[in-house]
Give the backbone structure.
Amino acid sequence: MSMTMTQKIIAAHCGKETVTPGEILLANTDLVLGNDITAPVAVNEFEKANCANVFDKSKVVLVLDHFVPNKDIKAAEQSKQIREFARKHDIENFFDVGQTGVEHALLPEKGLVTAGDLVIGADSHTCTYGALGALSTGVGSTDMAAAMASGKVWLRVPEAIKVLLHGAFRPYVSGKDVILHLIGMIGVDGALYQSLEFVGEGVRSLSIDDRLCVCNMAIEAGAKNGIFSVDEQTITYLRDHGAKEPRLFWADDSAVYARVIDIDLSTLTPTVAFPHLPDNTRTFDEIPKDLAIDQVVIGSCTNGRLSDFVQAAELFKGRKVHPDVRCLIIPATQQIYLDCMHLGLFDTFIQAGCAVSTPTCGPCLGGHMGILAAKEKCVSTTNRNFVGRMGDPKSEVYLASPAVAAASAILGRVAEPGEL
Amino acid sequence: MKLSGKALRYGDHVDTDVIIPARYLNSSDPMELASHCMEDIDKDFLKRLQPGDIIAAGVNFGCGSSREHAPLAIKSAGVGAVVAKSFARIFYRNSVNIGLPIVVSNLDIAEGDQAEVDLDAGILYNQTQGTEDHFPPFSPFLQDVIHAGGLMNALKEGKL
């Protein structure tokens, strides 16, 4: 039977020749991930079930990233619990403050994921690693606990939507605009239980950072995973980051898709998701010129990578953040922080009046480091704009690319880079 | 197993940020999480809820974050079951894994209707409106998980 990329990776991890959409199977995992919010629940379950050991101490990854550096005593207790668990079980990939970063920027950078892997993480944005040709998907804490003990996870074999990319970007358009455009088209449950498989000649116009951003938000369309076909750029990235030897899986020519969507990259323009759902997207011909804002956040597992800050810095060069706006710059990992520093980007940001933070998920989920008051508006490069996501339930989040976020910070309103 | 209760009705795309806001995720204590359940979408939720009541919702219930704190808060608050037209996939698996009964059904249920779920027969009744809907049984593996009382029990029974 013909299969999609995702179905082939599942089959390979179940020891089966073929799998059928809708089937529920037990699969072997290559990596099991948790963070300072989800891992405590998993550790409680692991210990309550009297599990003695983790299945493989090199395949469990624990990242303290959400409420770090710890925002309060309770958050500190949660980090401490995970730190002690990591020591007790000799977890090889435990990342604490000083080494840590936002998990979905950190794992690819550390070479922990390769093409063909099956990765699960107790974090919905685990779908990010599909950019590298892996099947990666978000699960819950009990899934994480069971997988830490057994190495296994139950999965429903998904159908797929094939997204055929054509052409190349216009200036100031990036991966964020591709995924916002797609979510706007199919809706926040448009890919529910399905894979989003990105293929076509247009793939080569997307950098690995763009692909990571696109797959990161697959979950915002309800997808189980997003995945890109592997090309020379992927292989180079994996090699440069010391990842394991890739295993390549290609969809069969006769694979069956629930739907095929064509996107001509050259027709895309900067796109913004208005409150309070990621599918409430608008382009600038539909956005008023007087939508004043209070805050801008550039960072997160969606857009906290080096190329995101390079784009933002180009716009901030010689300009100032609008006096009514606070602009937060949050490099997603220590390496990205160092690279920004060495490239002089921090000089540009700080001279423009931005605040630069150590890596954290912080404001994205309304944790800390940039919480919004009632009625405040924020343009953010993060991934969700639900009610109360970044603070008060009456605050508003507008999701956009780093270029749009930088232009908005400078002009004090939702603005596109071309207006500068 | 039969569960019955009064319905508390919500719309489409109820996300995990409103089920349990992230500002409370510095705790994993089920009762503490329950004390803030649904507060950003329905601040009277806990006052209105009687033990065993049923949440009835539209499409894509539980979308967003993978936080298991969401079904945990709902279960610990005393909700008997969640019935929705569809569920976000991580919320669905989390509910199965922790033993919160969930049902996918298009049956019309209004605020305050009396509903009953017969999990073994796969039937959802709206006793107020006198209507019913049959829903497909869980797959054999998920039935094992449900009968074991959750994924960790299934693990202990050697099902994984």
Chain A touches chain B through 53 residues (CB under 8 Å). The two ends of chain A are 54 Å apart (CA to CA). The mean pLDDT of chain A is 98.
